[in-house]
Structure formats: C-alpha cells, structure tokens
C-alpha cells in the first residue's frame, strides 16, 4: 500500500514533540579540577541535594564530552562503629632452656582484660601454652594452666590472629609460655586487643535564609526559611542561659515539596506537616535528629511555662554528608547534572567493587551551580498542547480519508 501523506505529516509533527516531552535535567554544577588521577569523593552540598529525589537517583556525573562517569553513592551514618587493633608492648620474646618460648607482655595502665589477641605468622603446627600474671615480674600467678594453639593458617594473608581467653584480671605483666620441644618457635608479631568505639557521622550546615523569633507569654516560636528545598536531618541549639533548664516543645517541618504531578493532583489539598517532639534539657546535648523530608521551612516551638525564654545564641541546621565516589583524571572537566523527577538510579559495575575502594578519599567540591535552560518541557506548555491536538486532529482526518478511499476502492472492485 502506498504511503499516505497525512500519516507522514503527523509522524513528522509528533516526533519532535515526543522527544521534547522527555524529562531533562534542571540543574548543572561544575566541579573543582582534581590534581592527579585516582578515586575521589564529590561532596553533595545542601544546594544540590535539595533539588534531588529523596533517593538521590536523579544525579549524573559527566565529563567534558558529556559522557556519564560511573560512581558509587556513599552516605554518612549518624553513628559509625570502628574496631581497631591496639597493641600491647612486648618486652621480650625468647626461647628458654628445655624447649620453651616465653613472651612477656606489658600492661602499664593495668587495664582490666580477659583476652589477648596474638598476631602470628602462618604455621602448620600445634602448640601447648600457659599464661600467668604478675605486678613485679618476680611473683607470678597462674591465669590459664593450659591451652592449645592449633593450626595457624590464613588463606588471604601471611598472618593469622589467635584469641587467648582467660579469667578477668588487671596484672601489669602477662607471661605466655609455649612448649617448643617438638618444633621451632612461633613467629609472634604482635600482641594486643580489639577496641570498638563509636564515631559521629560528618554533617554539612544548611544555610538559613531568614530566621525570625517570637516570644509570647509562655511560648517561643522560631521560624526558619531556607529559600530553596532542603533535607534537614539535625538541629543543634546553642543555649547560654539560664544555667538550668528543662523545656518541651516540637518542631514542625514545612510542607513537603511535591513533584509537579502530585502538585497538580493536590492543588486544592493541603499536604500534611510532620511534627517532631522536642526536649531541651541542660543535662543533655541540645541536639535533635529529624526524619529525612524535603522542606523549604520549619518551625520550632518551645514551651516555656512560667520560666523566662531561653537565650539561644545560635541554631544550626545540618544534613548528613553524601558523596559520589568516582575515578577522575586531572585533564578532564567534570560536572554534575541533576533534577529529573522521572529518572531512575544508574546501574554501574562499580557497585560490585565497593570494598575495593578506600573509605577515606580526597574531597572534590562544587565550584558553581546553574539552572539549565533545557528544563522547558514542550509537552507541558500551552502552545505545545495545541500542536499535539492539531497533530491528533490531522491524524484522525488522515485515517478517515484513508478509510473512505479504501471503501470506494472496494465498491469499485465489486
């Protein structure tokens, strides 16, 4: 069948409209150059994350040629737990007459402990050991009469850690005796213990455009406006007076920044606000963690009762640091493109190699931020809607004419 000019016209008219209706990036941010090749962390500032989906799926790292650069997304945790191996001082490790090796460990702070971890070179052997303690290296008291160190073998490294348990004690010196009558001594490299400690996650301060305060008879009201969408995750109050205080209150997170489609559906509906209980006490840090929600303002309400208002020197609004981890080169200019409501998270091979990339990497910061003009979606404008309806009308007319023509041809054949 011959091609119909009406169909061709409709196709040519609808093609650019369909491509223009795809969601473009709204924002672009240039990054500072990197000094040398390697992996870097790109710190996502509040000005960037505020324009992103909550999942941060709609961000891309691109090079000078606008090619996507694979990245990993890393997010700081409010509290991180680290485990470190802390060494004891080994005063001596020597072989005694009679086929016995003796390891003398110093515990100068007389730390209370019930185990010692030994870092030992790999060895296919079996050693009988005993442990005793002393405060003066003259009088020794038994802690463990006998234990056995079995095959010491690590398939990934040339060393292995063996844990020796014993009753809780705080001697200044510990003596480990190993029976070596049947073989050479073990290669004991270190002696120590594993200590677990907590570390607070790193935050970035969110700029506050305006902060107003109202003190009424029994209430203090603080209203913070940010001037753009942000994700506040922590409030830190700096209170200088009175010396002792205990005040309840609440934080009201402003209206959620809904997407364009949601705003259209809820044009006449008020989006619910989120209220978080607040307790300020001189006995605890004046810090409040907030649920992650995109807002443009928040209100802090403090119930003073019959007490005078608090003297609040400053109020900091913070968000947990978020990074893009990527391999970058000094001869390239990199930028971020983001702000697309329909975009899904990318699927890069790099996610399978997260453990191979160090946690601590040099930081790359945003150099400039600009709004992209390509944000205009032709399919959303009034003129483009008219064009689409015209195209549909032309298409319907073309199909109608084709149907009439086919019917006439069928009648002629009859």
Q: Could you list the spans in which at least 5 consecutive residues all have pLDDT below 50? A: 14-23, 266-270, 375-384
The number of domains is 3
CATH homologous superfamily of the largest domain - what is it? Galactose-binding domain-like
Chain-averaged pLDDT = 83
Query: What overall form do the CA principal axes indicate?
Result: flat
CATH topology of the largest domain, which one? Jelly Rolls
Count of strand segments: 26
State the CATH class of the largest domain: Mainly Beta
Given the structure, what is the number of helices?
A: 4
Strand order of the largest sheet: 6-7-12-9-10
What series of H and E elements makes up the topology? HEEHEEEEEEEEEEEEEEEEHEEEEEEEEH
Percentage beta strand:
35-45%
Keywords: Membrane, Signal, Transmembrane, Transmembrane helix
Protein name: DUF3999 domain-containing protein
What does this structure look like?
This protein is mainly β. It folds into 3 domains: 22-76 and 321-376, no CATH class; 83-199, Galactose-binding domain-like (Jelly Rolls), CATH 2.60.120; 203-320, Jelly Rolls, CATH 2.60.120. The chain is built from 4 helices and 26 strands. The chain has helices at residues 5-20, 46-49, 260-265, 382-413; strands spanning 27-31, 38-43, 59-62, 72-75, 79-87, 89-96, 100-106, 113-121, 127-134, 141-149, 159-169, 173-179, 188-200, 203-205, 210-215, 219-230, 234-241, 246-253, 274-281, 287-289, 295-303, 311-320, 322-328, 335-338, 363-364, 366-371. A 5-stranded antiparallel beta sheet has the order 6-7-12-9-10, with no helix packed on it. A hairpin with a 3-residue loop joins β15 (210-215) and β16 (219-230). The protein is flat and about 115 Å long.
């Amino acid at each position: 069948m011959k091609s119909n000019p009406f169909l061709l016209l409709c196709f040519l008219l609808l093609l650019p409209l369909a491509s223009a209706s795809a969601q473009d990036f709204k924002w672009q941010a240039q990054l500072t150059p990197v000094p040398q090749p390697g992996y870097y962390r790109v710190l996502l500032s509040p000005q960037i994350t505020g324009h992103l989906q909550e999942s941060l799926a709609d961000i891309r790292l691109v090079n000078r040629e606008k090619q996507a650069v694979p990245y990993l997304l890393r997010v700081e945790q409010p509290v991180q737990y680290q485990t470190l191996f802390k060494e004891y001082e080994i005063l001596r490790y020597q072989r005694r007459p009679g086929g016995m090796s003796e390891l003398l460990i110093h515990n100068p702070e007389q730390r209370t402990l019930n185990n010692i971890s030994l870092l030992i070179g790999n060895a296919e052997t079996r050693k009988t050991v005993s442990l005793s303690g002393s405060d003066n290296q003259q009088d020794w008291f038994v802690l463990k009469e006998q234990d056995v160190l079995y095959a010491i073998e690590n398939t990934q490294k040339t060393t292995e850690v063996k844990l020796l348990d014993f009753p809780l004690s705080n001697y200044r010196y510990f003596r480990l005796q190993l029976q070596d009558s049947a073989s050479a001594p073990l290669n004991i490299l270190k002696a120590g213990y594993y200590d677990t400690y907590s570390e607070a996650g790193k935050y970035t301060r969110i700029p506050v455009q305006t902060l107003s305060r109202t003190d009424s008879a029994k209430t203090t009201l603080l209203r913070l406006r940010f001037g753009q969408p942000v994700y506040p995750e922590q409030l830190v109050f700096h209170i200088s007076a009175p010396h002792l205080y205990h005040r309840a209150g609440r934080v009201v997170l402003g209206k959620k920044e809904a997407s364009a489609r949601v705003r259209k559906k809820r044009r006449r509906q008020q989006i619910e606000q989120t209220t978080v209980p607040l307790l300020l006490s001189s006995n605890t840090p004046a810090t409040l963690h907030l649920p992650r929600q995109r807002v443009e303002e928040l209100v802090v309400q403090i119930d003073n009762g019959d007490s005078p208002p608090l003297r609040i020197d400053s109020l900091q609004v913070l968000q947990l640091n978020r990074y893009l981890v990527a391999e970058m080169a000094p001869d390239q200019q990199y930028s971020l493109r983001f702000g697309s409501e329909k975009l899904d998270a990318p699927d890069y091979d790099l996610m399978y190699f997260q453990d191979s990339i160090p946690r601590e990497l040099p930081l790359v910061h945003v150099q400039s931020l600009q709004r992209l003009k390509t944000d205009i979606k032709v399919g959303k404008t009034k003129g483009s809607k008219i064009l689409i309806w015209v195209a549909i009308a032309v298409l319907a007319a073309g199909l109608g004419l084709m149907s009439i023509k086919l019917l006439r041809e069928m009648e002629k054949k009859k």
